[in-house]
Write a structure and sequence with these properties.
201 residues; Serine Threonine Protein Phosphatase 5, Tetratricopeptide repeat
Length: 201
């Protein structure tokens, strides 16, 4: 056997191990914490403020986009689609709030209730088909995406009908959604750190 053939065979036997960190907890925490804080507002406990918008821009938005790019490098199509999309959702939501306040050139761009309801409804449809994908994943992830689907449709209905009651219900449901994402994130982190199932997923 020639040296070239031996070299080729030895190259074929090399196995590459992915030692990069799991980005899912970062994405889930960015989503979960921001969702809880926004929906405490939706439930009526405090008005829209810079804390919510900053969380939406930096942690809910940028951190999830970063997590999505990391999932892409790991070859995870679902994680890439989910985290990148929801990161851009938060960035777009911040834009919807801030753009009409950006000066005289944008004052006519405020989003009325019907188009905002359409925006939320489309995100509900997206989340519904992503939920179908979680049927191949953990129960914890299924809970996150199912409750998020319900949240988007409740928010869409509340804005379409102009119902403060539905929006308040959505706020409480959204707090649960965010907490379920935090639970899933911390479960992955603690289970990995301790090398055993500390938190069932």
């Amino acid at each position: 056997m020639s040296q070239n053939i031996k070299d080729i065979m030895s190259v074929r036997d090399i196995k590459i191990t992915d030692l990069s960190a799991n980005p899912a907890p970062l994405g889930l925490m960015g989503f979960g914490m921001t969702t809880v804080l926004l929906n405490i507002h939706n439930a009526g406990f405090y008005p829209m403020n810079a804390m919510i918008l900053s969380m939406g821009f930096f942690y809910g938005g940028l951190a999830q986009v970063i997590a999505g790019i990391m999932e892409w490098k790991k070859g995870n199509t679902f994680g890439t689609t989910a985290f990148t999309s929801y990161g851009l959702f938060w960035l777009s939501l911040v834009g919807l709030v801030l753009l009409p306040k950006a000066g005289d050139n944008f004052t006519g761009f405020a989003t009325e209730s019907f188009p905002f309801a359409a925006y939320l409804f489309m995100w509900g449809l997206f989340t519904l088909y992503m939920f179908i994908g979680t049927l191949k994943a953990t129960r914890a992830l299924q809970v996150v995406f199912l409750t998020l689907t319900i949240l988007f449709f409740l928010l869409a209905a509340g804005n379409y009908l102009g119902s403060t009651e539905i929006l308040t219900i959505a706020g409480y449901e959204g707090i649960f959604t965010g907490l379920s994402a935090i639970y899933a994130a911390m479960g992955q982190v603690l289970n990995e750190m301790y090398g055993k199932k500390m938190i069932p997923l």
